[in-house]
Design brief:
Chains A, B: Pathway: Purine metabolism; IMP biosynthesis via de novo pathway; 5-amino-1-(5-phospho-D-ribosyl)imidazole-4-carboxylate from 5-amino-1-(5-phospho-D-ribosyl)imidazole (N5-CAIR route): step 1/2. 2 copies of one chain form a homodimer. Chain A is of the alpha+beta class and about 350 residues long. In chain A, about 30% of the residues lie in helices and about 30% in strands. The first copy, chain A, has 3 domains: about 80 residues, Rossmann fold (3-Layer(aba) Sandwich), CATH 3.40.50; about 60 residues, Dna Ligase, domain 1, CATH 3.30.1490; about 180 residues, ATP-grasp fold, B domain (D-amino Acid Aminotransferase, Chain A, domain 1, 2-Layer Sandwich).
């Protein structure tokens, strides 16, 4: 089976590495000269909206998927005329726009933080009055890793925030005092079967995910699964999805979802029977889904900015290195460390050592 | 780190898939149009004794290793003039010749079945008288998977056996009535540190390995480690080695060793903390070695000859598919199934189901 991937970054790279042993081969479409997925895939170099490149991709593969949700919807629809695209293009319409996303959550009965659309400074003032402060102003599109966001703590910051995000269509979200952030990574196949990984508990650093810990048996599992199932069924979804939640008391509030393999699920590479990458391939290639059960005590630490040496990383007991073949750059995810340890204490020690390493290079 | 591999078959492919996440890239030298390692490596197409191809390989990489022991020794020595070659070329001199191999075992105090060199029919007759029958006549070089061998059960089969193996330099080995065959896969790094995987218990079918089961805590572990350590230290070895033993009573008799990753260690991909492929990369790239501890109950089943579908393989509970990207051909290893199960019973059930699948296509 030949699988096309829109995007040739580390997610496509890890999808290909997981899929090659399943008798799949990969073609990535990416405009970059240094697409790191090319280590395990053929690259078509082209823009995501280049009709010729898209036609070439469709010609070469049996099915198309993507590694990021900002794929042009028109491109996904064009491809879908000649080859199956999973998840379907309809998902992008929602996933690319925070307002559509929150509206769908609400429509499906999935709790969210309070929110309101903002298209002007005066709308922002009205929204702030309704929702209350502090609150977060977020662009409807293109935001990731904390970009395109402004926290508003007092009335006199409203105009400044509106300017800061570029005066573009946005939503204002109530600043939730949550106890923690968790995410549910799940996979659904063509037949409608769904498998859920254990919840991930996520910790951020300057808006970027830093640590994800697998939490098998977490008390919030059932609520997270129920919400995720609503989304998957709504879209008749095929592939891996990740849904991020804030937890307040015994309630989960959906923050956003990603229609793809997700950084908070990287721990599944060593920490689950079958990784999110392999299960994504299995789903889009219409192969039986693999077990999502956790193995021992798993976690993931992101390496951001500068690169520690592989020797330093591998000297940490229970650490598994995943370099992305990317050059160092401030704020850039260049690698992650998967941890699979026999006890929580051993896992925490490995996380601590990895953070020290990563911090020294941050 | 750029790693060159002599040979571009499934072993090189699995080495590359394991090494890419460690920030390594791979160049394989292989004469074939369909080298299956090319899915995860750059291929230099050329013969193993082509000086230009070897020079190009040496120019492109930091270190060279190999996936099969029949690499021309002259090529390994030529490469070693400009780039480190691990395991060193001296190992090939022994590993390529059954007589040298058995003589080294004897020199190091490693027990072997009785054996004698055979260079003529009259030598064969004398050897048979000394060793006794039944016995096995094996070519000194080039034999693998049961090829280049003839079993001799009575005096009147001597001439026929000598003809059958092509009247080439050979050794006669006493036909040992062993209880089982086990192999020790181990890894040694540049600093001399050695890590041993749990023993594998191996079952063959028509001379080709069919099933390998991980046997952590096996009673023969200490003896196998001690023998393997002698070999590794003798060669000042760097990389993964596999040593095959026959067990008779509480005694191990060394059959042969392979200076490379080995089919009987494939179960380590899911079944050990760090696989033999990753540990081989770590050793030749001078990175810290990974843990060789077993995870739950592991085994490997070879898929030989015809190809079952990925869907059929993945429908087996606890099965992990490793297709090699090779076309089907009688007697050819085209894939293997890794099994990691929570109990011996579950492992055996998975082996049984996989054999049924594989048998249906054999």
């Amino acid at each position: 089976m030949k699988i096309g991937v829109l995007g040739g970054g580390q997610l496509a790279r890890m999808i290909a590495l997981a899929g090659i042993p399943l008798d799949c081969s990969f073609v990535v479409l990416d405009p970059s000269d240094t697409a790191c997925a090319a280590a395990a895939a053929t690259q078509i170099k082209g823009d995501y909206d280049d009709p010729q490149a898209l036609a070439e991709l469709a010609r070469q593969v049996d099915v198309v998927t993507y590694e990021f949700e900002n794929v042009p919807q028109a491109s996904a629809r064009l491809l879908a005329q000649s080859v199956p695209v999973y998840p379907a293009a309809d998902v992008l319409h929602v996933a690319q726009d925070r307002l559509n996303e929150k509206n769908l959550f609400t429509q499906l009965g999935i709790e969210t933080p309070p929110y309101a659309p903002v298209n002007s400074l005066s709308e922002l003032e009205r929204a702030a009055a309704t929702i209350g402060l502090p609150a977060v102003l977020k662009t409807r599109t293109q935001g990731y890793d904390g970009k395109g966001q402004a926290v508003i703590r007092s009335q006199d910051q409203l105009a400044q925030a509106w300017t800061a995000i570029g005066e573009v269509p946005a939503i204002l979200e109530g600043f939730i005092r949550f106890e923690r952030e968790v995410s549910m990574v799940a996979v659904r196949n063509l037949a409608g079967e769904i498998r859920y990984y254990p919840l991930s508990e996520n910790h951020h650093d300057a808006g970027i995910l830093r640590i994800a810990r697998a939490q098998p048996g977490d008390a919030m599992t059932e609520q997270a699964q129920s919400y995720t199932e609503k989304l998957l069924s709504h879209f008749n979804y095929v592939g891996v999805i990740a849904v991020e939640f804030f937890q307040r008391g015994d309630q989960l509030l959906a923050n956003e979802f990603a229609p793809r393999v997700h950084n908070s699920g990287h721990w599944t590479m060593e920490g689950a029977e079958c990784s999110q990458f392999e299960n994504h391939v299995r789903a889009v290639a219409d192969l039986p889904l693999g077990s999502t059960e956790a193995l021992s005590c798993a976690a993931m630490v992101n390496i951001i900015g500068d690169l520690p040496s592989a020797a330093d990383v591998l000297a940490v007991e229970h650490a598994h290195a995943h370099f992305y073949g990317k050059s160092a750059r401030p704020g850039r995810k260049v690698a992650h460390v998967g941890i699979r340890a026999p006890s929580v204490a051993a896992r925490e020690a490995a996380i601590e050592q990895t953070l020290t390493l990563a911090g020294a290079h941050f």
